[in-house]
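Hi U.,

Before I forget, here's the chain from the pilot set. I'm dumping it here mostly so it's searchable later in email.
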Amino acid sequence: MPEFLTLLPPDEARDKMLSHLTQPKPDSESIDVVSSLNRTLAEDILAPHPLPDFQRTTVDGYAVRAADTHGASDSLPAYLTLIGEVPMGDSPSFEIGEGQCALIHTGGMLPNGADAVVMLEYTQIVGAGLRPAPTDEIEISRAVADGENVIRIGEDVAQGQLVLPKGTLVRPAEIGGLMALGLTSLR
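Structure:
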């Protein structure tokens, strides 16, 4: 009686064949991030630090302690003492205490003690000048919650978070993200 040839199912045949093949690991090199366009990552990229690495505001306004604005409204505003202005790009040299606030601009670093920002549209200067000056009172006509109008430390990227997995094709967007994290070289 003639013997018949038994065939493997296609998936099993492919798996059996692939198990006998060896795939050489491609060489990798360390290169500058700016030179990595259209290259493929050989290693995972983990965030070396949180981004942002400081609390910052998302609006122009006044950095406050949210508790100091509790219940504030048009008919019953809260009044806070202005103690200064946060210079853009600088760390504040003061701390916000009870009943105090500081002028702050979009992207500015929140002073210690502050946990929220009241938008300028909900404030009014109670003083002589058109521009706020230290010791002026600021009238707040809207309460804010803890964390309102604030980006917390690590809210965009946490320290140690996988930013880009190995095998990723590096494009301009990836280069920008890597540079924002302060990375200068990769594999």
